[in-house]
Design goal:
The chain is built from nine helices and five strands. The chain is of the alpha+beta class. The chain folds into two domains: 79 residues; 155 residues, Heat Shock Protein 90 (2-Layer Sandwich). Strand 1, helix 6 and strand 2 form a beta-alpha-beta unit. The chain is elongated and about 105 Å long.
């Protein structure tokens, strides 16, 4: 798989360099023909002029098609990378569920033993702890998309590793999404990673709250954290490509990519921030809402 990625990158680079060489060659040739004192192009016969124009047009068309192919290859490669990340998250979720199923009988035996010994308080405490572990997984298993469920579970585990309390509220199945699940996972992943990065700068009391809901016209995602406030000056730049406040890492592309994906599906993203919380809210129009808009245009 690694060799395949290297081959794809090599093919893209070679094609891109070939196109650049063709463009430079055509420009140099045109400059020579039309700007030379002797006006070489005018002195050519009509047949030669037509042949030259034909070669230039064919070269330009080849460059355009090559550029389109490069874009397609990069897009497919990006989709494959996201699908691999999604499959990895699904595998992690599957392993978590298998571990819970394996431990369930053991939990029942422990509770039964405690009740047999009249240790009711210990049994209650044990059940409460076990229930919290099960509930933390069941919170993210409420959407109709296995990819989204797996991503949320993976990010919840990342949050726990960074001593962050992550609360997930799901009141929508997120069915019939107008956006492919792998692209929505990119949006969710970028927003959650951004919140985790901000919270890691706090010494303690790290809270991340996420909500997936819907209304009649839109699917709504909200990511809220109690990290540092985003100033009004920075707020207007955070969606610009390359802008970042992270000194040690990051290329400043996460939020820019997120906004581009959302806008591609006629959605919008909003951000609000004060001394207590920073909230990113995403609205994605439902498919029927888009059809109604198109019908009105006709």
């Amino acid at each position: 798989m690694k060799n395949m990625r290297l081959k794809v990158k090599k093919a893209v680079v070679i094609t891109l360099l070939t196109n650049i060489i063709q463009i430079v060659a055509i420009l140099v040739l045109l400059l020579y023909l039309f700007l030379s004192p002797s006006s070489v192009f005018v002195e050519l016969r009509t047949g030669s002029q037509l042949f030259f124009i034909f070669i230039v047009i064919i070269s330009i068309i080849a460059i355009v098609f090559s550029g389109r192919d490069i874009y397609y290859i990069l897009r497919v490669n990006m989709q494959n990378n996201m699908m691999k990340e999604t499959l990895k998250s699904v595998e992690m979720l599957n392993n978590t569920l298998r571990a819970q199923r394996h431990d369930f009988l053991n939990h029942l035996q422990v509770v039964y033993g405690l009740i047999e010994m009249d240790e009711y308080e210990e049994a209650r405490n044990y059940i409460n702890k076990t229930y919290k572990d099960i509930q933390s997984v069941s919170q993210v298993l409420k959407t109709a998309s296995p990819a989204i469920n797996a991503l949320l579970q993976a990010k919840r585990m990342t949050a726990e590793q960074n001593m962050i309390t992550m609360e997930v509220t799901v009141t929508s199945r997120f069915e019939d999404l107008p956006i492919p699940s792998w692209e929505l996972c990119r949006v969710l992943g970028n927003l959650i990673d951004n919140a985790i990065s901000s919270l890691c700068e706090k010494p303690d009391n790290r809270l991340l709250q996420m909500e997936l809901t819907e209304n009649f016209s839109s699917y709504i995602v909200s990511v809220k954290d109690n990290g540092a406030k985003i100033s009004e000056k920075i707020k207007g730049k955070i969606f610009e490509p390359g802008f970042t406040t992270k000194k040690d890492f990051g290329q400043g592309m996460g939020l820019a990519i997120t906004k581009n994906i959302i806008q591609k599906y006629n959605g919008r993203i909003e951000v609000s921030s004060d001394d207590r919380y920073t909230v990113f809210t995403v609205h994605i129009p439902k498919a029927h809402n888009k059809r109604n808009t198109m019908a009105k245009n006709y």
